[in-house]
UniProtKB/TrEMBL annotation, chain A:
Coiled-coil region(s): none
Domain RCK N-terminal: 125-248
Protein name: TrkA-N domain protein
Molecular function, one GO term: monoatomic cation transmembrane transporter activity
Entry keyword set: Ion transport, Membrane, Transmembrane, Transmembrane helix, Transport
Origin species: Sulfuricurvum kujiense (strain ATCC BAA-921 / DSM 16994 / JCM 11577 / YK-1)
Its membrane topology: Multi-pass membrane protein
Keyword Protein biosynthesis assigned: no
Residues that span the membrane, as ranges: 18-38, 44-66, 78-102
From TrEMBL, chain B:
Pfam families: DUF6394
Record protein name field: Uncharacterized protein
Keywords in alphabetical order: Membrane, Transmembrane, Transmembrane helix
Membrane spanning residue stretches: 7-24, 30-50, 62-83, 95-117
Amino acid sequence: MSNESTIWLFLRKMRTPLIVLNLAHAIPVILLTAVPGVDGEGKTVYLSFFDAMYIVGYTATTIGFGEIPYAFTYPQRLVVLLTIYSSVPAWIYALGSIIALLQEKTFTNAIKMNTFRRKVRHLRQDFIIVCGYTDAGKLLIDRLNKDNLYRIIVIDKSIEKIEALQSEMYLPSIPAIVADASMTNVLKSSGIESPQCKFLVTLFDDDQLNLKICVRARVLNQGLRIIARSGIKQGGENLSNIGVNHVIDAFSIISKRIDFALRSPYLFNLLSWVQGGNLHVSKSDILPIGKYIVCSKGRFGNTLQKTLDNNRIEYTYLDINKDTHEKVSSDQDFFIQAGIMDAACIIAGTNDDAINLSIVATARSLNPKIFVIVRENELEERSLFSNLRVDKIFILDQIAALDGYNYIDRPMTFKFIDEVSKYNKEMYVDTLLLITKKVNKRPALIEMEIDEHHMYALSRYLTEASVSIGQLIRNPYHDGEDLEIVILGLERSNGEFILLPDESTLLQPNDHILFASTRPSLDRFQTIVNHYYELYFVIHGVEARRFKLFG
Amino acid sequence: MNSEKVISGFFIILALTLNFGFVYGDFDVIAYHSVYELVAAITVNIIATIMKLGDKTQTGSVLLATSFVADLQLLAAASFWGIVNMTSVMTPELFTIVVSLAVGALVANIISVTLFVGETLLLKR
């Protein structure tokens, strides 16, 4: 039953109580006016309709005022007695029905759904629908909400999760609803058909559910960009077949990172930086060469094996699950047989955090020098893992959230990493050093389009004359100081991608640029590209004359 | 036969007939218009209104609207009558207002019954 009809059901259910109440008032009123009374002088008087209504009013609501024009005669008292016994239960019945209905779940849900629908309708900004307030969903929402480029709408089936979201007090507020996101009418209520709906993100752990949501979303809105998380349990192959624009697959992201780390710590570092880490190669970024032990079954294990095979790494594959776990934690021989004593690295990658922790502890006690990589499934276990001094932690939810965020906010990072990884090792080092030298070790990564919304003055200026990157960044104020900005990539409106464009590259309108920068430099840059006089000064070195602006 | 239709039809038509019964007669002659009939008309009108609650069809909503109009007019007539009685003496001029308000309700009730009958006739089942 749709929620709309619940309101009608409510009205329908209220029919009988209301009719009973109406009759219980009307009949006593008529009787009271018809029954003769006696006034103080013994004359026969009749109650007016107003008097009668007044008496019935306080009787029925059990207020029992007791103020009457003259003492009642016996026939009148009889009527009042009848009134009490008929109208009081009727009144209680009607009130009781209303209260019962207000407490009814379907009815309150219907009211909530209506409020939600109204909130969505009144959004005047582009928005994103996030299905599933999971750990990954929360991280993603935190990030997106800080940027405030899009408003966010959340659907989750669990009441606790939606309540948790509401207790976060996001600003701007996030309309959220407790509902099954795989239902078409729920998606419709979330405004999926609106042209302002730009993205739909589904982050459930269940692939079937994600699939269901994506199929419906695609049918409802062709232009929508859909991002789906490939669940932990099944594969994500189906997702890309049904028109999902981006599949978040935490396993292949981790495998890619390990792959990059094996190829070069610098490449690994660039990748983990665009995915939210530091831009600084630490000791733990250098994966050891030698024998690997992979403790993981299923999809993660398979992806890892491919990666290790590609890099010609020797490895032992241990299939550890709940059944064999008992044996593993108690029997160190199991690990010794697998060759832990001369292994260089162990990857604890099961889908159970407790098992992963026990693998790490056992491995460390046997071989203190072993390099440990851990997969963390639940965010709550974070402190436990960090106490273990593991060398690398891959937190699935965090990885998934950042991947989704990158796709929404700076899709060029994917191209950048692809392009960079094609080059040779020196190139990684150069790129990394270029960024860290010019900016710092934790630069902000920004993608921006040269259009009237983001770079007003520059986009106007480019229609008249050409500007090179160097003119904006190298020594713009002619004071000998460059802006701390490194342009990592330039994407032309025709899709052409230029990796690390040099300073003589000419900008064009509607170019997307991806750059690393510090906050102060970013502010300066934005001032330059958004103000005519500033831009003119930066390009020409002299103040613009007021009336000769831009030819 | 649909028992819900019988019951709601009964009240809708009774509302009209009672309304008509009250209005019938010279406008300014109080004796022609029984106060009891007005009270009955109001009561039945309210029941008719309640019977129309929760009907989500298109005609259902128009029916509900006409019912509200009739209720409003009849309650206005009754309140006016009551207030005049409490504060001054009812004159034929003032009484005309009471009856004309009730006539307004009558029009709404006629629309209501017409719609109801029309809808019922259109039903193929």
